[in-house]
Design brief:
Strand content of chain A: 25-35%
Helix content of chain A: 25-40%
Largest sheet of chain A: 5 strands, parallel
Strand order of the largest sheet of chain A: 3-2-1-7-18
Shape of chain A: globular
Radius of gyration of chain A: 23 Å
Distance between the termini of chain A: 55 Å
Structural class of chain A: alpha/beta
Number of strands of chain A: 25
Oligomer: homodimer
Chain lengths: 446, 446
């Protein structure tokens, strides 16, 4: 059996390794267009923050390990350009310009996502960069080393934008953030969003939401960024307005696309073609709370989906229940997390959301070092179900959110969740954990 | 309606406040034998660690607030000595030696637990102390201030013993810990227990399990502690071998006792007498995983039970599902947590436990500052259910355990738990959270 995988990052390499482990006789081939496979993409901002570290520190497993130790036919520099579901073959070109054609029995599309770079004047200038793969990271670090960068403009205010603003401040750069939409974090509760904004500006970052970028020019070696009512200049511009799924190959092959143009897959990760699977940032997923399709490009989902595909092409029958939309990021001294639905998403999914927003403390009464933790909790009036939680604080946020995520997977009501026997000790929270305080109040309101 | 409460700490004052809030016409009387109500008992070790802080910092709400702002008839210095369920009255003596008798319509026994002080020679000497209530805490601090204490011996190795060994090391004392049973933390996985032991000894604490204390003598102003094969000397001895429920009053009144001689209550916190409730450390509780009774003297449970009693005496019908045995403590730089059953408890409850023990990292690949996190996970071979988790690490343990606690409440299988969409970002853990790695491995084993 020949199992061919397009793309050698999280989903692709997880699938390759596991298929070979489960069924060593399987012929596993991975076609990756870059030279990098299996790296921690999420670690790039932290690597960029430290000029003494090599970007290659983020490589988790080198190509030779996959080839020599695991017996995977890993071909880097192999760009796939077409899938033929009828002939069951893929075609492409190597970085050396040679054409190749490879037949498959089972195919996995794990092509990931790409940073969106607007097609506006000047976005192709040197110094204007996105950050998605390791080569993007190397390019940014090289540029900073070569150009004595003093000022950077970040376009966008998503997770990567915020992680990068911290990284660049650590490198002593002046950082300005702009974005088109007028609200700083539109998906977030206003009070929580205000806590994040305060932390970012307190760390010397200028924030301009509602400033659409019109064009970038190069003047005397500097980049001039023209926005609606603002002219900014810098040596470097980071375009972090979002990512889009790399689903072009699948679309051209006639596969069905789903949410946000990601490749539509069922719970076994199968596409609309019997022998073709898709996994990772290029594919959609089920949302456990809504029961509908969603698209969330995150690492855990990609790894898990890669494993499930490996199980399914080697005789297993793994079905993934789906995701609940859990995410966390750090920005300066704040931890920011969410899981499930915010009120707008809840309405959209047909729920009747009721919410509470509370501010608690991260440590017990009279315990030194306590700080504020903000919790928004959303429940459904009709069913009493917990729908989502958002949280911001200096400590205890990143893992506390997981309790709510598990409750969402279990379909718990807010009332049942409020009865949870959560851990308590003075250094880690008050007797009534902020999650429980929120649940108690929300339960009463419902 | 007259609602009388015996005991003015977590359960008692929670019940009093909530009953008055829900139904302001209720006559609420609290009879407390000490002068302290509503304080953070768990904060005492941290308060003792800092000689500049007053023990009274731990008081959450002063008696006058309950009396003047909340209209609660709070009587401190009132020791109840008998309950008469037939006459529906309680009798006792004030600290001034006056007898009192009070009738009730509904009664709550919230008498808490007491530190066990062995009846051995010398345990009544000055300098030999327990730590359960605020007055115990004040006595320890006073003793340390008055006696230039240089050496302390802690008898016992439970949560309080370990928190106190950290506190006393912070005060520059020589600390030696002894206990009768030969195993350091018998309820804990061996590898995890070894991590805790290493941390404690690395911080200069001498540990002697398997050393039964026989007697304490006072010689030249010092205390000599005679153990099996060991003679130790110190200025202060802390007896922290455990606590027992204060259920004597209830027993004398003919109420049914349950697990570990705690007062037996149903899910509505009612005792074997129709109009008498019990809540907090003096009462037992249901264990959600086993469905059986258990006795766990912890603060959250006490507060929650107090609220439920208030609901039930004011016309509500609150049933508490029970606890899952979640606990966390900090010792030096380690966080130690557990929830659910360990393998021995699982066997005892009729399960067929299968376990895994993994060591993971607290941060992502190549992220600076990562350290080891140990996770033991137990599941049931027959049903596939998650039964319990134990965890030790320098960071990310205290709140991570809550995800497992919620899964236990929901009755999740290990396999379902392994599919949880947990939060990931490089500063907070690897892509596969240590909880998920443990669940993946355990799921395969089951």
């Amino acid at each position: 059996m020949k199992f061919v995988i397009i793309g050698g990052d999280a989903a692709g390499m997880s699938a390759a390794s596991r298929a070979k482990r489960r069924q060593p006789g399987t012929e596993v081939m991975v076609l990756e267009q870059t030279d990098d496979v299996s790296y921690s993409a999420c670690g790039m901002p932290y690597n960029i923050a430290d000029p003494t570290r090599e970007m290659d520190d983020l490589i988790v497993r080198h190509p030779r390990v996959f080839r020599e130790k695991q017996g995977i036919d890993l071909r880097t520099g192999h760009r796939v350009e077409a899938i033929d579901p009828v002939q069951k073959a893929v075609r492409g070109t190597t970085c050396g310009g040679k054409s190749f054609q490879v037949p498959y029995d089972k195919l996995l599309i794990a092509t990931g996502a790409s940073a969106i770079i607007p097609g506006l004047p000047g976005f192709d200038l040197p110094g204007v960069m996105g950050l998605k793969n390791l080569e993007d990271g190397r390019r940014i670090k090289r540029f900073m080393a070569d150009h004595k960068t003093r000022k950077d403009i970040i376009i966008g205010m998503g997770y990567i934008a915020l992680e990068m603003c911290e990284a660049l401040r650590a490198r002593q750069l002046d950082v300005t953030m702009v974005k088109t939409r007028p609200v700083f974090l539109p998906w977030m509760n206003e009070d929580l969003s205000a806590m994040v904004k305060e932390e970012v500006t307190a760390n010397g970052v200028a924030i301009y939401p509602g400033q659409e970028v019109r064009a970038i020019e190069q003047v005397d070696g500097d980049l001039k960024v023209g926005c609606q009512d603002l002219k900014l200049d810098a040596q470097m511009v980071l375009a972090a307005i979002g990512v889009r799924p790399n689903s072009g190959l699948a679309q051209d092959a006639g596969l069905q696309l789903g949410k946000k143009m990601a490749i539509a897959v069922d719970k076994s990760l199968r596409t609309s073609e019997q022998d073709i699977y898709a996994a990772g940032d290029c594919a959609d997923a089920y949302h456990v709370v809504t029961g509908r399709k969603t698209w969330v490009p995150l690492a855990l989902r990609a790894n898990r989906a890669g494993w499930a595909v490996a199980d399914n092409v080697t005789g297993g029958a793994k079905m993934l229940p789906g995701i609940v939309g859990t995410a966390v990021f750090k920005v300066f001294n704040l931890q920011v997390a969410r899981t499930g639905l915010n009120p707008a998403e809840a309405i959209d999914a047909g729920f009747e959301p009721i919410e509470v927003m509370i501010k608690g403390r991260t440590r017990a009464h009279a315990h030194p070092g306590a700080s504020t933790i903000g919790v928004q909790m959303v429940g459904d009036r009709k069913s009493g179900r917990l729908l989502g939680v958002q949280m911001v604080g200096k400590e205890g946020v990143a893992h506390r959110i997981d309790a709510a995520a598990v409750a969402l997977h279990a379909g718990m009501t807010v009332d049942a969740f409020s009865q949870s026997d959560l851990a308590y000790a003075p250094p880690f929270g008050p007797v009534w954990d902020p999650l429980l305080t929120a649940a108690n109040q929300l339960s009463k309101k419902i």
